[in-house]
Amino acid sequence: MKNLVIITGICISILLVACSAAKTNNKVAAKKLPVDKALYDSVLYMDSVLFNAFNTCQLEKFNNFFATDLEFYHDKGGLTNYAHTVDFMKTTCERTWKVRRELVPDSSEVYPISNYGAVQIGSHRFYNTEKGPEILGGTFKFIHLWQIRNGQWKITRIISYDH
């Protein structure tokens, strides 16, 4: 009888641990809601306009999204600046093969930065087209620091990683 009580106690403990782990995993899998829905929608809209300009080689429109004191941190390329980003875009658009960026759906998180703007954290895919069909170049992570200046949003810092 004593053994039955011990075995029952162990089984109950295992079930409680398993249920607790399942509950924790469900929390991780749940979609994260935006902290500020209006800000989230605004930043995602700006992201779409920025990368539509990138994808269609609208150089002036693309360049206007960045502060002239831009700092761009790339895990493989190191630290670059506004001039490098503008030159990169120009060179990219002059190539015979094209690059297209796509935001990974539901990957963006947006948080307000008091008296500054917002931070956007997400994942995006880049596709390349040289000869023939478009191919996936890779899926990467990014952080964009958006600042509102004179009523206009500009990206002041970029961290691009997981390449």
Describe this entry's structure for a reader.
This protein has 163 residues and is of the alpha+beta class. It is 40% helix and 38% strand. The chain contains four helices and seven strands; from the N terminus they run αααββαβββββ. It has helices at 2-29, 37-55, 59-63, 82-94, and strands at 66-74, 78-81, 98-103, 109-113, 117-129, 135-149, 152-161. Strands 1, 2, 3, 4, 5, 6 and 7 form a seven-stranded mixed sheet that branches. A hairpin with a 2-residue loop joins strand 6 (135-149) and strand 7 (152-161). It starts with a helix and ends with a strand.
Helix/strand structural class: alpha+beta
User: What's the Cα radius of gyration?
Assistant: 23 Å
Mean pLDDT: 86
H/E element order = HHHEEHEEEEE
Distance between the termini: 60 Å
Count of individual helical segments: 4
The domain tally reads: 1
- The percent of residues in helical segments reads 25-40%
In terms of DSSP E residues, the strand content is: 35-45%
The CATH topology turns out to be Nuclear Transport Factor 2, Chain: A
Instruction: Report low-confidence residues grouped into runs of 5 or more.
Output: 1-29
Main sheet: strands, sense, barrel: 7 strands, mixed
Strands, total number: 7
CATH architecture: Roll
CATH class: Alpha Beta
Rough shape?
globular
